[in-house]
Structures are given as C-alpha cells and as structure tokens.
Amino acid sequence: MEQRTIPGLLPLLLLLLLPPAGRATVCEGEGRWPVPYRRFDRRPRPDPFCQARYTFCPSGSALPEMRETDVLAVYRLQAPVWEFKYGGLLGHLKIMHDAVGFRSSLTGKNYTMEWYELFQLGNCTFPHLRPENPAPFWCNQGAACFYEGIDDAHWKENGTLVQVTTISGAVFNQMAKWVDYDNKTGIYYETWMVKSSPEKNSRVWFEAYECSKFVLRTYQKLAELGAVFKKMQTNYTTITLFSGEPACLGNETTLFGPLGNKSLALAIRNFYLPFKPYHSVKEFFLNLLKILEEVVLDHRFYLFYNLEYWFLPMKYPYMKIAYEEIPLPNSNATKFDV
C-alpha cells in the first residue's frame, strides 16, 4: 500500500523543486481532463532538420469541388501500419492505420483521404537530442493527405474496405472546407492516449491525435451534415499509457531557458535518451532496460503535449495497445433523397 502512494506525490515534489522564476505559468488546459488539444492559427514551416525517410503524401492533390447533384459512396479504409514494409505483420497485433475513401457516381473516380505523420511515427513520438541544444527537438507535425484512387489490394488484403454511408456532392464540398480548417489548425501528431486505469469508464487525462481520430472527426462532421451511417462494428487502434494525475512542468523556455530548472531539464533529456535509434542488438536491450527502469520501477514518464511537458506518475499496467470498438456516429439531420 505504501509503495502505491509514492508515485502520486512525485508531481508535487517535482513542482516544489522548481525555483519561483523557473515555475511554469498555468499550462493551457491544466486541470481540465482530458486536456483540450491546442489548435493554432497557422501551420509553421517545418525545420529543415526534420527529414522523412518516406515522402509525405507523394501523389497528393487538393480536394476537388464536386457537382452538388453528385452522389458519393464513403468507405472505411483500414490496413496494418507499415504494411508496405512488413506486410500484414502488425495487423496480427491490431496496430492499424485508418483512412476514408470516396467514389463519385458521376465520374466513377475514387479518392483516398488520410491523416498521418509528416516525418514518420518515431519522430512524432520521441524527440531528437542534439548536442548543441539542451532542449529536445521535435519533428512531430501531422497533416491530411488527399489523392485520387483507392488501392483496393492495400486495404482489402490485410484490412478493411467497406462502405459506411452515402453523401451528396454538396455535403462533400462542405466537408472539404472543414478538412481545410481542421488541417490548418490541428498540426501536431500526438501518439499517446493517457488514462487513469484500464477500466472502461476511467478518467482520460490526454487524448491521442492521430490517423484514427481524423477519421472519427470526419465521420462526425459528415453526420452533422446529414449523412446516415450503416449499423456495423468499427474498431480502432489505441496506444494508452496509465498514470495518476499528471502535473504540468512547463514549456521549452521555462524548463530549458536561462531561468529554467537545470536538474529537471536534465531529467527530461535523460528520459528520452534511451528512445533514440539503436545501432546494435546489445544497444537495443540496454536501452530497453533503461526505459523499463524509468517507467516501471521509477513510475516516471515525461509527456510532450501542446508544446508543454507533463509528468506522468505511471501505474500498472503502464501501457496497453488495444483494438477498441468505437461506434459510427448518429446522424443529426435527415438523409438527403437520392
């Protein structure tokens, strides 16, 4: 019993260690659970340091304007993450990528729309540690990608390609305006969901912001515009951390700036050090042991969310990858006559 109460005291102790000049002002959304995902006025230009091994949205195009009288089938698309590299391997672990497909009845053209990382998943989940800069450096932008065509083999072979609703061209055009807004204001990829426990109705501290959340937001917008979805089971991958109540530590300036807390800044930097790419099997296992020591033995995880650092007092079972059912939305309007 005594051991379980210690992690809950750590956030308070860490905050008390901060000198008055180095303490963060109240973080945006602090005390509101889940912490609201911050939106921005514009998308910043990525730093040239951030380079993707695989080009983001190589055949992408702008969303076309459909004729209002067009009728479009809307498809749920799902396939294993990194299927192009590992085939259906991650599908067996239910680690899936989600997208939305459209088919125009007037032109017969197919389209795919998805949201994913600009610089691959690892860069969005963990930072780079550069010797010339004490602060961790993040390449964690995500964005929408729209292109003509649906790769049937990609989505069908190890995943899902199924129609979920039908919309008019007018609804598609309204959705396209919303996608433009959503893409310009929601710019950072957030891998982790953080909850207080694995129980179904446990408190959510942070929501993830990744491909499946974009699909769910798109479905909800279509429902608001009148789309009526079929009754079917739909599941999505969630990667969840479990912790006690998080404590906001501050942003890059308050932690790593001239008036920041050097010991806490070093602790954050050292925490991320084992997550760097490994160059040998031995290095991989040494880093894994360090991660387990931080998360499992010391009950410690530093989360970067909304450009701020949060301390998570970790709790058993620490992390879980689940394939959870999230129902399709109910329509808020009457279906159009087709």
Descriptive account of the structure:
- The chain has 10 helices and 11 strands.
- The protein is of the alpha+beta class and 338 residues long.
- Strands 6, 7, 8, 9, 10 and 11 form a 6-stranded mixed sheet that branches.
- A hairpin with an 8-residue loop joins β6 and β7.
Short description:
With 338 residues, the protein is an alpha+beta fold. The protein has 10 helices and 11 strands.
Layout: helices, strands, pairs:
Elements: H1 2-17, E1 71-80, H2 83-86, H3 89-92, E2 96-104, E3 110-117, H4 120-125, E4 142-148, H5 152-157, E5 160-168, H6 169-185, E6 193-195, E7 204-206, H7 211-224, E8 235-243, E9 247-251, H8 252-256, H9 262-272, H10 281-297, E10 300-305, E11 308-325
Parallel strand pairs: 6-8
Antiparallel strand pairs: 1-2, 1-5, 2-3, 3-4, 6-7, 8-11, 9-11, 10-11
Distance between the termini: 63 Å
Question: Which residues sit in consecutive blocks of at least 5 with pLDDT less than 50?
Answer: 1-25, 333-338
Instruction: Give the number of domains.
Output: 1
Question: Please, what is the average pLDDT?
Answer: 88
> H/E series, N to C?
HEHHEEHEHEHEEHEEHHHEE
What's the helix count? Answer: 10
Number of strands: 11
Q: Give the radius of gyration.
A: 22 Å
Report the sheet with the most strands, covering strand number, pairing sense and barrel closure: 6 strands, mixed
Helix content: 25-40%
Structural class, judged by helices and strands?
alpha+beta
The backbone outline, from C-alpha atoms, is globular
- Name the quaternary structure: single chain
How much of the sequence is in beta strands? 25-35%
Signal peptide: 1-24
Function: Exhibits palmitoyl protein thioesterase (S-depalmitoylation) activity in vitro and most likely plays a role in protein S-depalmitoylation.
Protein name: Bis(monoacylglycero)phosphate synthase CLN5
Keywords: Glycoprotein, Signal
